[in-house]
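Blinded run. Sample ID left blank on purpose so nobody reads anything into the name before looking at the predicted structure. Input follows.
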Amino acid sequence: LLDMLKFYARFEINDETGDPLTDHDMTQLHYAKIKSLQKAAFAKFPNLRLFALSNVANVDTRDSLEKHFGALDVHSLREIARYLNLIPDEAQQPPFEWHRADEEFLRELLISRHERRVSQLESLNEMPLYPTEETIWNENIVPTEFYSGEGCLALPKLNLQFLTLHDYLLRNFNLFRLESTYEIRQDIEDAVSRMLPWKSEDGDVVFGGWARMALPIQSFAVVEVSKPHIGEKKPSRVRADVAVTLNVRKEVQEEWENLRKHDVCFLITVRPEQPIGTKYDYRGHFVPQVGLLHVRGCEIEGMLDANGRVIEEGIEQRPQLTGEQRTFRVWLDSNQYRQDMDREGADEEREDVYEGFNIIMRRKPKENNFKAVLETIRHLMNTECVVPPWLHDILLGYGDPGAAHYSCMSEQARALDFNDTFLDYEHVASSFPQYEISCADPKVQPPFRLTFEDVPESEDSDGESQNGADNELPKRIRVEPYRIPKRGPYKYNEPKKNVIRFTPTQIEAIRAGMQPGLTLVVGPPGTGKTDVAVQIISNLYHNHPQQRTLIVTHSNQALNQLFEKIMALDIDERHLLRLGHGEESLETEKDYSRYGRVNYVLAKRIDLLGQVQQLQESLGVRGDVAYTCETAGHFYLYHVVARWEKFLADFEQRQQAKEGTETATDPCKELFETEFPFTRFFRDAPQPLFGGESFDENMEIAHSCFRYVSHLFTELEEFRAFELLRSGLDRSKYLLVKEAKIIAMTCTHAALKRKELVNMGFKYDNILMEEAAQILEIETFIPLLLQNPLDGYNRLKRWIMIGDHHQLPPVIKNMAFQKYSNMEQSLFTRLVRLGVPTIDLDGQGRARSSICELYKWRYSKLGDLEHVNRWPEYCRSNAGFGYEYQLINVEDFNGVGESEPNPYFYQNLAEAEYVVAVFMYMRLLGYPSEKISILTTYNGQKHLIRDVIESRCASNPMFGKPHKVTTVDKYQGQQNDYILLSLVRTKTIGHIRDVRRLVVAMSRARLGLYIFGRVGLFKNCVELQPAFRLLMKRPLQLQLLPEETYPGERKLHDTAPDASKMNSISDMTVMAQFVYKFYMSKVNIIREEMEKMKELYEKQRQEQEEKLNEQIKQSDAEAEEARKQMQLKAEAEKKQFTPTPIRNELGDVTDAAVVSERPRRGTKRPAVTEATVDVSEEKDPSETEEASSENQAPEQAANNDVEEKDEE
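Blinded prediction complete.
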């Protein structure tokens, strides 16, 4: 506390003007004080002549000042102090009799006032970012979780106001570092306790357990200590090798091997005094039990391969290492290493910290980004923070809170193009009830351009408003419709349009977001915050095509929900970019990451060049004009534009010639078809291409076709840079800095990558923050400074923050930081508390009206949208339940209510069984599992419910698993039709006492909410009274109607169901038995149905078999009949056959044929047919002999030739 007082007593601020002072300014003030003291000493005190003549650097340290002033008596000290007006004269005793004037006080006064003040920035730059054992377990620095809220702590606070931006950053830096230290303490205690370090008989350390997040170190060695940079004292780099043995499960081994570059780990030294087998007391002090001596942070560089080289991350597959031995190369903190070495040099008996490490601990990646955030804050403090002038005072908490509202901004726009925001003219009229709406034709169709006549016109060059200052402007809006030019002849060229009928408050939020300045939108649950954000982004994209918009949210899930809606808008896909690791969970096949967008651009370029090739062929132009974007640009300029201009000139001449004639309005379809130069290119468009009823309509079609062609070449011109840049890294940087117009990231990613983005030259004009009330103050501030100032000014024009400070704040685990330091206060909440104007959305469309009553009391005005009372799903009651929401009292089971197997790991078995039984009951009635979510207020209960589901119903296809089983905190921003909520606690209220958590819990359900808890405990809680008063009006026992089935037909507001049909469930065991019987009845019904189906199936099968047998018999009979017919036919044909004799005059021919058909030697002779025999029998023997003798010689020659060929 004293150090904080000393620091703020000399803070770098001008006490009169409030301006911040730089290090140079502080040095000049210090010199002025020393000079005044030296002048006084030279003039009045001869014995201080040496001090008066010395240079400042020789005399401004505490040691030198004590040396010079130590010998002075009290009288001399008093004279010097009076001369410097540090103490009053003795003549003025009555008003100042309280002041001290003793020697000790005067000497300390002079020394402390004139000693050189250590620069806060220098000490910050020399501070190690990793916590050590000295700070982690120091209760004065990091209080325990048992902070009661009483007493004063030496901690900085985040209140409403700050002295300067440096003060703002410094407080956030210290608190963020301490909160991270507290989380690290929890992780170390958990991991080391699981490893069970004991002292062996020979004095070594042995580990009796194991931990997923920690491993014993086999060896540790510092391998490099680089020389300091010029002007620094710390080493420029310190590297070490850590050898471990991965004798763990396969998945744990993969987690260790997949540690990425820059992941933070901790090196721990333990020397336990407890013998083997000693049990640890988890409620006792941790450090003495395990003998913890040292903790040092380190940063992973990489794992070493078999040759001792770091395995680099990249596209190539990582080498497979054999065995279980692994060595990690790590970077140590240079500042910490220097401090340790200095201490070791000063105290020779001090142990070397870096020789005894025996445990290395890692942390979960999502919780392990503290070092990067701290480095970002420190880098901000070392640079000049330039925030927009209209935002500076509001951030510090000074001046007019409404100064940044768009109505107070000098650049307020008078006319706004709302694009597709309005669905029709009536929508416009209903959206501005305070304004008079004027329009030439009330039947006009959107889009509309609105001119607000109560906004003064822009000032002229003389600085005087054209309307005059004294004229009161009318509250009137002039509505002007306009037509968006058609983008082409294809169906997909039609722009996507908004279909949401926004409420007046949503329209006001959209209007404010389109104007320059700061816009705060408070959105209660279900009021369409995301839809408003998406429409603002769309309007900014279309109205300011050269501006870039940065989207920041608290979580990846919220960012993905927002981004998925943006993708459905009329926004060119090439202008969207999603940074961070959350794009994997986007529900789309397209990749919106940096490299995914680069691949999209390259693929799109090939596609566009293919269309250029088609255009070239359709125009009959020779050459390879579709080779690159550059050649395509020349083709467009010299061929496409030239033909288009010639076409326009020809048609203009024709129209001038036709003016005044009857043919002036002729649509000229044939002429357009023949003269339009791109008709062949658009032959795949809907035909006829020129189907307009008039000349003007056809000319508009021609213009739309040329717009399509022109847009094609415009895209290619934008993609030209991707041809020139060859590496993927350069292309992705160009995409981020130049091409993308809408860039989305989480606040954590912005904090981690700020330095990289600034060095890249990243620029943006607008920021939209979703879930702003859940983002830490510093993580909200950092996105303002992701770009370098332009000519000393920040180019930011709009800052839209959308959130709800009545729901959960940022998560801060340590109670002292949360309550005492007010660290859970988001910047959004602070601005609301300061009185910055907000737009409160007032129409919810998520929950039934009755469910909304449970939390709408928290908001000043919150009503229902029309569809909540009109849609069928809201009008029907929940099938199988007597009420749409109910509080169910759950008593102890076997005498046990809440339990705590581990510290703060609360569970309630009775509620877990009850909730799962109700889920099973709903599934038996036919409720879809994806429409049911189970929420609870504690992680322990979440795990217990998951275990019960796994054992009871997960493997049963009749039940399955619910959509989600999670905590209320994790489910913020999500919704489902039916919510089952377990409150867990039975002894104390717990953290549901926070009304913001209650609001989140009650507002997640759309159609049904069933709450399980100890009614006697919660009904008396003052904070929860408004909600529980409504819940207590209904029976506290679950009311069921098992005869109904989902979705049901009973209307919500019908008379109460018959009590005889209603089942009242008294406790969990009754519900379990009821569900079991209900399940068995369903199973029996299914079994009976199955038996019936089986009998029916058997009957059908027998009938089919009989029918098939009959068909087979019939087909066999038909086949037999056909066979007999064939036999009879064959016999008849055989009887009718008579051989034909060969006449004698053909004998020579017949003999020649016989000779030619004689087979070769060695071949099988063909069988002699009956016909041949008959012929030979009829021949005259003498004729046969003569013929054979005549043909013997040639036959013999032919046979000889055949034999020779066979031998060859």
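Unblinding after everyone has recorded impressions. The first strand starts at residue 197 and ends at 199.
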